[in-house]
């Protein structure tokens, strides 16, 4: 018995389960999108993170990593139980063909399991759907959860795709927009206003002007007599 699982998000750099073989490659007919809510790892129910899911696209390919688990039903069960807990926001498991770079026409492995999600906000409560790039970037830049912040998830995916030699324009564009949001947020923080030299001199002169109390001698009796 052999089980294959395709990773296209955090599984690429952090599988978290025992596997016997890891192979770099791609699947056809799907593209990576940040349309799925995460409320227990990189976000919260009040402020969900945006994480990867797959969207069907006829001419698209999606690069990632396939993991093979060998050793019988018990070993497969343990791996799948872990994955189902971790990928709990994904409501579908789809079987796909997996291709390697040296033979893009013939599948290297068939029946590879990939976690996907129903692209419908009514039937799938975790599906956020598409949004303008700027809106997604603001959400990713500010979301945090028990396992860390949302922006690190995106930056780690960007790095992982670079490391395997298959950078993705969509991921890079979104990551750069998040960096832009973070930079703008930093520059908007209130900083102390630096006083000019002329202002310092003027304020110093103003502070050195004696008050009437300092000029007049203090004669309580005279004051009483005047009143």
TrEMBL record:
Which positions carry the signal peptide feature in this UniProt record?
A: none
Q: Which UniProt keyword terms apply here?
A: Cytoplasm, Lyase
An MF annotation (GO) of this entry: glutathione specific gamma-glutamylcyclotransferase activity
**Which cofactors are required for activity?**
Mn(2+)
InterPro entries (alphabetical): ChaC, GGCT-like
Which protein family is named in the record? Belongs to the gamma-glutamylcyclotransferase family.
Which species does the entry assign this protein to? Arabidopsis suecica (Swedish thale-cress)
Name of the protein in its database record = Glutathione-specific gamma-glutamylcyclotransferase
- Annotated GO biological process: glutathione catabolic process
Q: What does the UniProt entry say about where the protein is found?
A: Cytoplasm
Q: Does the keyword DNA damage apply?
A: no
Q: Cellular component GO terms, alphabetically? A: cytoplasm
